[in-house]
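Input sequence (262 aa), recorded before submission:
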Amino acid sequence: MSQLVKNFSKRIGLVCILLLASLLTGCVDYDLGVNLNNANYGQFVQHIKLGEKLTSFSGDSVYEWLDSIERRAKELEGKAQRISQEEVIVTIPFSNGRELQRKYNTFFNSKNNSKSRSAKAESELPKIESNLQLSQSNFLLLVRDRLIYDLDLRSLALISSKGNVLTNAGSILDLEFNLNAPWGANSIQNESIEPLKNNKQLSWKLKPGQLNHIEAVFWLPSPMGIGTLLIVLFIVLGFYLRYSFMPDPRVQFSSEELGVKS
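Predicted structure, token format:
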């Protein structure tokens, strides 16, 4: 009889976990985006939206996590727009590939040793490894960019609270990485995930519990190269106008001298 009760209790527990997973479906929408205007300006944007069920279940810790995101954005000369208590949009600008690498990796791998409540809440979250690289090659008027992004989400295989496993993270986390370039981008085919292409945007659905690898190549206009070309064209045009439509003063002076002698 006791064995029957134990088996029944296990089944009830399993049903409760599955029910909780269905209630929490789509609890976190996390969109990451890198937007590039040219070789010398761009911004990366994060749009985070927490579902009501998750916030009511997790308590203040998720709000403290959003507060820490706002704080880190301001430390990197970015701005945060708090749409609501559960939704925030963070925008951080960069002026070149090196600055993008530094700010992006600093943002996602920052370690705050303060004893604030937000730091404590952040330390309780699963640790993820994020590494973005952007190499650039100059071709006078154009810059060839190659983006490599490795995001280790294996620590998110399971979501837990106070040591109790809740559910598979893939059922409650909707994670997406977007890349926007003026002339579009091409993905490298040796990726762990395939992107979706929408006009000039590439979008990758990130997989919780796995190592996500992204590679893409795109071209950007070079402001320095274009500026140099315009200066050269301006000089050439000046010489052309000077010698095509204006008389040579040396020739004019010689003609005046001949008139005086005659």
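Checked by second reader. Residues 13 and 19 are 10 Å apart (CA to CA).
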